[in-house]
Amino acid sequence: AAGVIQSPRHLIKEKRETATLKCYPIPRHDTVYWYQQGPGQDPQFLISFYEKMQSDKGSIPDRFSAQQFSDYHSELNMSSLELGDSALYFCASSYRETEAFFGQGTRLTVV
Amino acid sequence: ILNVEQSPQSLHVQEGDSTNFTCSFPSSNFYALHWYRWETAKSPEALFVMTLNGDEKKKGRISATLNTKEGYSYLYIKGSQPEDSATYLCASLYNQGGKLIFGQGTELSVKP
Hints:
The structure holds two protein chains of two kinds.
Chain A: E1 5-7, E2 10-13, E3 19-24, E4 31-37, E5 44-50, E6 53-57, E7 64-68, E8 74-78, E9 87-94, E10 101-102, E11 106-110
Parallel strand pairs in A: 2-11
Antiparallel strand pairs in A: 1-3, 3-8, 4-5, 4-9, 5-6, 7-8, 9-10, 9-11
Chain B: E1 5-7, E2 10-14, E3 19-24, E4 32-38, E5 45-50, E6 56-59, E7 62-67, E8 72-77, E9 86-93, E10 100-102, E11 106-111
Parallel strand pairs in B: 2-11
Antiparallel strand pairs in B: 1-3, 3-8, 4-5, 4-9, 6-7, 7-8, 9-10, 9-11
């Protein structure tokens, strides 16, 4: 069965560089969530999209932006990267209120 | 600010023990409650999705209950096994398409 696909799986960037993380939700899912998990921390909600419109926003820095495209895939753009942005970034998708399915995550390391 | 609280933060039990943990969430405008199991180096996997007050769900040795009026859910594991060792996350949803708000998780360690 198709799962949530995230790319890349690993990314190493230098400070002040830009990174783009991609998420391909399960077909027919109408909601996409982005989470950031720092080392030893709980997952922190960044942003969500429902039917390609931003539906909710969490603790997402102004340096980050996200969008969902017509094919339902989503991209998280991160600019002026800081060391503290190093984390595991999860994308999840769901249909209505049913269970969310998570991707494998993108591990971003900022050096 | 919507906060989801889980307790305890960590739990160490012996194989065969039964255990339970709590998830507390704001009850106003509640839409759904999710439980996830998260093993190290893997992504979270859903255990249960509950929406109605009084809901009880069961999957093998794991079961969950929901009280939407007072804002809590319990997860029970009967006869814990070492393979149950994981972090158990609950998350509440307040509107369709809105954000899933996660608790901090309960880390369960089951010793043989």
